[in-house]
Amino acid sequence: MLTYIKESIAELKENVTWLSRDKAYNYMVMVAVFSIVFALLTWGIDTVFSRLVRLYFEQLG
């Protein structure tokens, strides 16, 4: 197990290409903005469907 951990760390240090801090920051901002937009879109669609269902059941009752 210890050999596996040592080899994994060596693999990360030698063979993985890491992003620069600026690129990583830019990607993080893009992901955050996309997540917020997607959450707002999901909230909006959920609100519209909730109101439609409420109207439907009010018409039945």
Keywords:
mainly alpha; 61 residues; 0% strand
Could you explain how this protein is built, in words?
There is one protein chain. With 61 residues, this protein is mostly helical. It has a domain of 42 residues. The chain has two helices and no strands. The chain is elongated. The N and C termini lie far apart (66 Å).
Distance between the termini: 66 Å
Stretches with pLDDT under 50, minimum 5 residues = none
Write the element-wise H/E pattern from the N-terminal end onward.
HH
Oligomer: single chain
**Helical content band:** over 70%
Q: What is the radius of gyration? A: 24 Å
- Strand segment tally: 0
Mean pLDDT over all positions: 95
Number of helices: 2
Largest sheet: none
Strand content: under 5%
SSE layout and pairing:
Layout: H1 2-14, H2 21-60
In short:
By secondary structure, the chain is an all-alpha fold. It has helices at 2-14, 21-60.
